[in-house]
Design brief:
The N terminus is likely disordered. The protein has 14 helices and four strands. It has two domains: about 220 residues, Cytochrome Bc1 Complex, Chain D, domain 2 (Orthogonal Bundle); about 200 residues, Cytochrome Bc1 Complex, Chain D, domain 2, CATH 1.10.760.10. The longest helix has 19 residues.
Length: about 425
């Protein structure tokens, strides 16, 4: 069904609208008006009604997404951290954003990720079977999927709940508090029109309605996955890459050099779907500890990703500690902080870190008073075996780097071709 949805989107319907509509259109309803106010869970409906409802919820979700009145401070909307001009990621270079409560003084724990290109992320599973042949299920790729750094939620509506109720984001204490604010919002009548006149009688239903609308908006193709980069045009035979960009692509895909495409898939899938630049798996990369995150001033605190502390159901899996989900590299050139802890602020530094993490650890990690490098300083040694050692990692201190400086520059140039056209226009001031 992926290809079918993709071609619906390319026909102008939008992948998100197509996805939402096809999921809703299970059985036909007798009257098209039945979808107008069908409640939070309207059940099956005709294809026409399903597409109409998806468009209605997209428009409503857009209003909710940009509404700061839903936060405890009245100053922070979803868009405050997920800026449309920055691929629905943060506009600032801060490692974590600050929010929560009336005074906006609660720092977060992780860098804010982009919301673009999440539509293809599968639900989380500990055992993902897939291969390049897309039919051979003999290879267990391990933990894969989920929409957050630790994969703890699978659906856009569930993801939308997190910032609304987080004490260091929008700071609402419960669903009822959000529902009360929704009832006072200028689009409250739109919520009633979409979900029924009695939706506000039950605060939980009103809350569920809002996050469903947000999740539907975040499936809007033109906003969240336009596939309009120059690299997409190049794959379609409608654009060219420079010699430097082509060399960067070669290095990106070369298993003996960058080996980036082993996790950041750069070729279209066999069904024609554009490359997502992520396999959605989990890796341990040992980004240096970022002391700009207030939580890290406690030497006993470690963000271990898949095994906690924000995710709790896998706390007993020591082999998962230090693993974080591989993000897409689409629009990566617009980012101002990188990795789950926002340690790096330069894309070139990120590629250099990959190339020299193990061959020159003193470049990245602090030293003890005796001069010994404290490598992997944000991961307890008990979990070092979880770290990725595939090329370009796995070298010994003093070994030659996997990539020369000019090669790093060429990979960065290639990554610049992954920026969507609308964002390039905004960046250029047009």
């Amino acid at each position: 069904m992926t290809t079918k949805i993709f071609w619906l989107a390319r026909s102008g319907l939008g992948i998100g609208t197509a996805t939402a509509a096809l999921c809703l259109a299970v059985l036909p309803l007798r009257h098209s008006s039945a979808a107008a106010a069908a409640g939070v869970h309207p059940g099956p409906m005709s294809r026409t009604d399903a597409f109409a409802r998806a468009e209605t919820l997209t428009a409503l979700g857009r209003k909710i997404f940009f509404d700061p009145s839903l936060s405890a401070s009245g100053l922070q909307a979803c868009a405050s951290c997920h800026d449309p001009s920055h691929a629905f990621g943060p506009a600032s270079a801060k490692p974590v954003e600050v929010g929560g409560g009336e005074h906006m003084d609660r720092p977060g724990l992780r860098a804010v990720p982009t919301l673009r290109y999440l539509q293809a992320v599968p639900s989380f599973t500990e055992h993902y079977y897939d291969s390049e042949d897309e039919g051979d299920e003999s290879v267990d790729n391990g933990p894969t999927g989920g929409l957050t750094w630790d994969g703890r939620v699978d659906h856009g509506a569930d993801q939308a709940k997190l910032p609304l109720l987080s004490p260091f984001e929008m700071g609402n204490k419960d669903a009822a508090e959000v529902a009360a604010k929704l009832r006072r919002a200028p689009y409250a009548r739109d919520i009633e029109a979409a979900f029924g006149a009695t939706v506000f009688d039950n605060p939980q239903e009103a809350f569920d309605a809002a996050v469903e609308a947000l999740g539907t908006f975040e499936q809007s193709g033109p906003d969240f996955y336009p596939y309009s980069s120059r690299y997409d045009a190049f794959l379609a035979g409608k654009a060219t890459l420079t010699a430097r960009e082509l060399h960067g692509r070669q290095l990106f895909e070369d298993p003996a050099k960058g080996n980036c495409s082993s996790c950041h898939l750069s070729e279209p899938a066999n069904d024609g779907e554009p490359p997502q630049f992520s396999d959605f798996g989990f890796l341990g990369l040992a980004a240096p500890r970022n002391m700009a995150i207030p939580a890290n001033t406690d030497p006993g605190y470690h963000d271990l990703g898949l095994c906690g502390p924000q995710r709790t159901d896998l706390a007993g899996h020591s082999d998962y500690c230090g693993l974080f989900r591989t993000p897409t590299l689409r629009n990566v050139a617009l980012k101002k902080s990188f990795f789950h802890n926002g340690y790096f602020h330069s894309l070139r530094d990120v590629v250099s870190f990959y190339a020299t993490r193990d061959s020159d650890p003193g470049r990245w990690y602090p030293k003890n008073s005796d001069g010994k490098v404290r490598k992997y300083d944000d991961l307890p040694q008990a979990y070092w075996d979880n770290l990725n050692q595939d090329p370009p990692f796995g070298r010994k201190p003093g070994d030659a780097s996997a990539l020369t400086d000019p090669e790093i520059d060429d990979i960065v140039a290639f990554l610049g071709t992954l920026t969507d056209a609308d964002l390039l226009l905004e960046a250029s001031g047009h």
